[in-house]
Design a protein that fits this description.
Shape: globular
Largest sheet: 9 strands, mixed
Number of strands: 12
Mean pLDDT: 92
Strand content: 25-35%
Low-confidence stretches: 1-11
Distance between the termini: 46 Å
Helix content: 10-25%
Radius of gyration: 19 Å
Number of helices: 5
Structural class: alpha+beta
């Protein structure tokens, strides 16, 4: 049984989807609803697709990737020829175009030693320019001007310069994703990323929640590190960019 999966399903019944099978939707329809954009004319409770405000996160989500109504709502949200970034979708329906795929892994905390990092400082809006520069240099994944609003972000400075950071992104019920884990190339090998992951995890644990994270399946070094400090592979989702049907001119360079 994978970490995070239940074991109480009776024989002959179908297990309910785990919240981490669709964490972006669970976040956008819950703790992160304040950041959610829905199709025009649909109330949040009636919409089957949503996306983050575009200066917060690039991710969109479907209530049920197997439900054509979810895809119809996503098409209404992004518009003809619009592009959406999704996680965990095996293949889009007819008429949608796949424009990019990254194979990923999802890992959950099973034995992490979570503890504060006294040298870490809380990052806020004033730190965003430095954070964006560090993200551009190290490329750990998407980070936008308002991403820091999604949760608690911590950084470590050396002589005033931001050299490492990590923080909280997706927030499905009972769980919080650790994201944007990165260290300046000139300061690697000092365990800064590990200290920040443990510190961010300590804050998550203090709320009674469980840390989890995603990374590229090709990032084998990071996966080995995460497993060594107490994370366990749960599943292998794909991160996919898809283009909605219509507006052929939008596909031209």
């Amino acid at each position: 049984m994978s970490a995070g999966e239940g074991s109480g399903t009776r024989p002959g019944t179908t297990a309910a989807p785990h919240v981490l099978d669709n964490p972006a939707w669970a976040s956008l329809s819950g703790a992160h609803s304040v950041f959610a954009e829905h199709p025009v004319g649909l109330r949040p409770g009636a919409s089957l697709a949503a996306r983050y405000d575009r200066d917060v996160s690039p991710f969109a989500a479907l209530a049920d990737p197997a439900d054509p109504r979810s895809w119809a709502d996503l098409a209404a949200l992004v518009g003809p020829g619009g592009v959406a970034s999704l996680a965990g979708v095996l293949s889009p329906p007819e008429g949608w175009e796949t424009v990019g795929v990254i194979e990923g892994v999802q890992l959950v905390d099973t034995s992490l030693r979570a503890e504060p990092a006294p040298e870490a400082v809380r990052l806020g809006a004033a730190d965003v320019p430095e954070a964006l520069a560090l993200i551009e240099l190290t490329k750990p994944g998407p980070f936008l001007p308002r991403t820091v609003e999604l949760g608690r972000y911590l950084g470590i400075r050396d002589r005033g310069r931001l050299i490492a950071m990590a923080g909280e992104r997706l927030h499905p019920p009972g769980w919080t994703e650790i994201s944007a884990v990165c260290t300046h190339p000139g300061h690697r090998g000092r365990g800064l990323a590990t200290r920040l992951v443990r510190a961010v995890a300590a804050g998550i644990r203090d709320r009674g929640e469980v840390p989890f994270l995603h990374t590229s399946a090709a990032n084998t070094g990071a996966i080995r590190l995460y497993e060594a400090i107490g994370f366990t592979l749960r599943r292998r989702p794909s991160f996919m960019a898809v283009r909605a049907p219509g507006n052929e001119s939008a596909k031209l360079p």
